[in-house]
Design brief:
The complex is a heterodimer of chains A (about 260) and B (about 270). Chain A is of the alpha/beta class and about 260 residues long. Chain A has nine helices and ten strands. In chain A, helix 5 crosses helix 6 and helix 6 packs parallel to helix 7. The radius of gyration of chain A is 18 Å and the shape is globular. Chain A starts with a strand and ends in a 16-residue tail after the last helix. Chain B is globular and about 70 Å long. The chains are: A alpha/beta (about 260), B mainly alpha (about 270). Chains A and B meet through helix 2, strand 6, helix 4 and helix 6 of A and helix 8 and helix 9 of B. Chain B: It is found in: Cell membrane. Chain B: It is a multi-pass membrane protein.
Chain lengths: ~260, ~270
């Protein structure tokens, strides 16, 4: 369970990234956070694994206030929160299997990882993860030889290999075309249901949010302006979140092709 | 300053490619550089009142003394030549190893702790300001004539170049994979090993080979001040006015350097 209690974040340049956030994310939920760029979606999601650090309030992950974490505690927190990025963030010159095994780094000792002495279970776990996103035939390809959609699937496999309790996905489909976007969202959704991994996804496409989310959190200017199950969400809700009328480019489309 | 947007709209003319300010700056820089050239030209002409008069005649006289080269000493110079190559290999290897921590500590994107970054930077800048020959003279004074002071001088000399070039390579890497590793709970060493090393490995190898080339040439020069190797032998022959022998040594150095540079260039091409 993740719980934000009066969380504020002010960046050194004075920008208020998060303003009085009070949100509770229950285990197993698939939450989509929507909002325009600059609304604080990224800051929200990155607070949970402390890639950014809120300046006040408390943020509980499994009933521990993670804002006080340093060093070892922080690494432990990060091993249970897997992250997926807009730009996939793979090591382009390394092969797919090695990229996926990097998901085990948090569970592996420094010496073991430097000499590639992964446990047999870890290697087979990495391979199984690649199979789950159907990219196991590319294990020895270099990451930069793959297409964007394939790279994002490798990064999903990396997160699966990490065996996290939470998955944080920061605009995972923003660099992909509509059919590939749906494919990636389908994998995330499937993993959420099968492995019971709580998943938080940042999106700015309204139709995708509606299609995949259990629950939608709307953000504007660092504040949570909507929080509710997807069944309560209408076009009007989005207009309130975005503070303007809905436009063509707020939709990803292409759902029927997926 | 006039508002460029308005002036374009008023005159309805085609805008120039560069803004007036840039043009002005470039013009000023041009004239400053021109003035520098004129100044240094004046200085050198004062010193060279005789021009090249004597030099051309002298050149033939001096060159004639070097020919024909005495190839009988080939056997004797084989050893010092190998010594020079060994010096370069040992020095480059040791420098390449010591460079790694220094380059990481002097890369702004990895070493976020500012004081450490500045201290390493200053230390490396100091290393680079010392010319290799000065290093060799100092070490020969400390340890006596031989290859050991030469190796030490080369290590410090190549450390300055390598650490600087490699830290700049590190600063230009893609930081995204490092962020991904951090987000998955990896520690700093694992982040460096998994996300940074694969990105800089080809450039690292290429730069080390390049510095090896430089070290071969530098070790010849260092030999002239007593730091072992073929340079030392060359210096002895020149001091004895034994020019045909010196010529053979020069030819051997020339061929060796060309061969090593050729191999190194091919290797580097294959890497990048």
């Amino acid at each position: 369970m993740i719980e934000f209690k009066d969380v504020n974040l002010v960046y050194p340049n004075g920008t208020q990234g998060l303003k009085n956030i009070n949100v509770k994310i229950n285990d197993g939920e698939f939450v989509v956070i929507v909002g325009l760029s600059g609304a604080g979606k990224s800051t929200f999601i990155r607070s949970i694994n402390r890639l950014v650090t809120p300046t006040s309030g408390s943020l509980l992950v499994d009933n521990e206030d993670i804002l006080k974490f340093r060093g070892k505690d922080l690494r432990k927190l990060r091993t249970k929160t897997g992250m997926i990025f807009q730009n996939y963030n793979l090591v382009k010159r390394s092969n797919v299997l090695k990229n996926v095994l990097a998901g085990r780094l948090g569970h592996t000792g420094t010496l073991r990882s430097i000499f590639n002495l992964y446990k047999k279970e870890d290697v087979s776990l990495a391979y199984e993860s690649l199979k789950r996103v159907h990219i196991d035939e590319k294990i020895y390809n270099r990451a930069d030889e793959l297409s964007g959609g394939q790279q994002q699937r490798v990064s999903i496999a990396r997160v699966l290999t990490q065996q996290p309790k939470y998955i944080l996905a920061d605009e995972p489909v923003a660099s992909l075309d509509p059919p590939t976007s749906h494919q990636v969202m389908n994998y995330l959704r499937k993993i959420n249901k099968e492995d019971k991994i709580t998943t938080l996804v940042n999106l700015h496409f309204i139709d995708m949010a509606m299609e995949y989310a259990d629950r939608i959190i709307g953000m504007r200017a660092g504040e949570v302006v909507f929080d509710g199950p997807v069944s309560e969400v209408t076009e009007k809700t989005f207009e309130e979140i975005y503070g303007r009328a809905i436009r063509e480019d707020d939709l990803r489309g292409g759902a029927e092709q997926a | 300053m006039t508002n460029p947007k308005n002036s374009i709209a008023d005159k309805k003319t085609i805008p120039s490619i560069y803004p007036t300010k840039t043009k002005l700056q470039v013009t000023v820089i041009f004239f400053v550089i021109l003035a520098l050239y004129l100044f240094s030209m004046k200085k050198t002409t004062e010193d060279m009142v005789n021009g090249l008069d004597g030099a051309l005649g002298n050149m033939f006289r001096v060159l004639a003394k070097f020919f024909p080269p005495n190839f009988e000493i080939l056997k004797a110079i084989w050893n010092p030549m190998l010594e020079t190559i060994q010096m370069a290999i040992i020095a480059t290897t040791i420098a390449a190893i010591i460079t790694i921590p220094l380059a990481i500590l002097s890369a702004r994107n990895v070493t976020t702790f500012k004081p450490l970054y500045y201290i390493t930077r200053i230390f490396l800048n100091l290393l680079r300001t010392i010319p290799d020959v000065v290093l060799a003279v100092v070490f020969v004074g400390l340890f006596g004539i031989g290859i050991f002071p030469g190796i030490l001088a080369l290590i410090i000399f190549s450390l300055g170049i390598l650490a600087k070039l490699i830290s700049e390579t590190i600063e230009s890497v893609d930081m995204n994979p490092l962020e991904a590793m951090r987000a998955s709970g990896a520690n700093t060493l694992q982040m460096i090993w998994y996300a940074l090393v694969p990105q800089i490995a080809p450039q690292f190898t290429s730069l080390v080979l390049y510095v090896f080339e430089i070290n071969i040439r530098a070790s010849v020069i260092l030999g002239l001040v007593g730091a072992g190797g073929i340079g030392l032998t060359l210096n002895q022959q020149i001091n004895f006015y034994n020019y045909p022998n010196a010529m053979t040594i020069i030819i051997v150095i020339f061929i060796t350097v060309i061969i090593i540079e050729y191999i190194s260039t091919k290797l580097r091409e294959a890497l990048l």
